[in-house]
Amino acid sequence: MIVFGVEDTMKALDMTALETLMLYEEIEVMRYEIRNPVKNETNVYLLTPKQEEDPKYFKDPETGVDLEIVSSEQLSDWICLNYQSFGVKIEFITDKSPDGFQFVKGFGGIGGFLRYKIDIDQVAGNTDNAAFDDFDPDEDFI
């Protein structure tokens, strides 16, 4: 009963289904809280450096209005500050060992052990803002 990758791991964390979260401390993912001033909605986006360059995350597609960035911080920093509210333990992973290197490169540097079995594909959620929506298993695995 494991989960890996930013999107699936964060879904499991939100559900408090994670017992232990494994995290590469230098994971290159930013957590943005972005507010739409027209609709008065706030969304959370987990973006890679490549995705941060894409204006679609920072503009309303319907109105073209610039969205307001409420907060932005490294995902690893946010997890370190908030993990206790989810009742999860954190284990930091290094990429200096062969196993750690494979975890970082193959699984995105984040994953965890589940408390109970869940079907992550059935979890309701918006996958349009997935952190790794350009995932290609032929290129992204070692």
Automatic annotation (TrEMBL):
Residues 1-118 form the eRF1 domain. GO terms for molecular function: translation release factor activity. Transmembrane segments: none annotated. SUPFAM superfamilies: L30e-like (SSF55315). This is eRF1 domain-containing protein.
